Every structure is written in structure tokens, then in C-alpha cells.
Amino acid sequence: MLELVLRISFSLLVVLALMWGVARLVRRPLARRGNTTVALLARQQLGRGSSVAVLRVLDRALVLGVTEQNVTLLGEADPAQFAQPALPDRRVPLPVDQLNGLIRADRRFWPRTLDYLRDRTGRQP
């Protein structure tokens, strides 16, 4: 009996591990899978079943018309026009006086939030 329980438990563990691995593999964006020759730069929906898409293929930007039935090459564009703007660096250290203000504000935030939620739900401590 113990052997049967161990076998079933091990089999279940293997199946769950495989499911977890497949889920992690599927969740990765296509750009991270090593296919850097083709990338979607922009897309604009025009109607219910039609859109215009800009694809980067190697060093060219292709403008495509996409419908439910077909894909049509509309032309080419300069890939530099579709460059992503640089994101601001969020790791900039704050001065000590601003940090102290944030900590003090944070200490008051949660009790006020809980009081507000208690009032809204009608529950009292």
C-alpha cells in the first residue's frame, strides 16, 4: 500500500513539474526566444478586422496591411522612426529628507487606508 502511494505521489510530482516547466516556456515573449530577425515595431487597428503593422526585418521596416483574409505589403519606412524612447532610470537615489518624508507618509498611509476600508464595509475592529 505504501509503495502504491509513493508511486502515485512521485508520478504526480513529475507531471506537476512538467506542467510548470511548459508554463514558464510558454509565458516568455517571442522576442526573448532568440528570434531577433523579425520584430513588431508598431500596430494600429483600423477597423474590426483590419490593421496596419510595422515589422522590423533585419535592418528594414516593412509597413503591412493586415486583414482577416490576407497580408499586403504597403511599403517601407525608416526603422529609426520607430525607435523606443529610453525609459527613465528609476534607481536614482533620493535625498535623505525626501526618504524620511516618504517613510513618515507611509506610516500614516496604512492606518488611514484600513480606517477608510472599515468605514466603507461597515466592519469595526
Average pLDDT for all residues: 77
Number of helices: 2
Q: List low-confidence stretches.
A: none
> N-to-C SSE series?
HEEEEH
Structural class: alpha+beta
Oligomer: single chain
Largest sheet: 4 strands, antiparallel
Give the strand content. Answer: 15-25%
Tell me about this structure.
There is one protein chain. This protein has 125 residues and is an alpha+beta fold. 42% of the residues lie in helices and 23% in strands. The chain contains two helices and four strands; from the N terminus they run αββββα. The chain has helices at 2-27, 96-121, and strands at residues 38-45, 51-57, 60-66, 71-77. Strands 1-2-3-4 form a four-stranded antiparallel β-sheet, with no helix packed on it. The protein is flat and about 65 Å long. The model has no long low-confidence stretch (mean pLDDT 77).
Features of this protein?
125 residues; alpha+beta; four-stranded antiparallel beta sheet; 2 helices; 4 strands; 42% helix
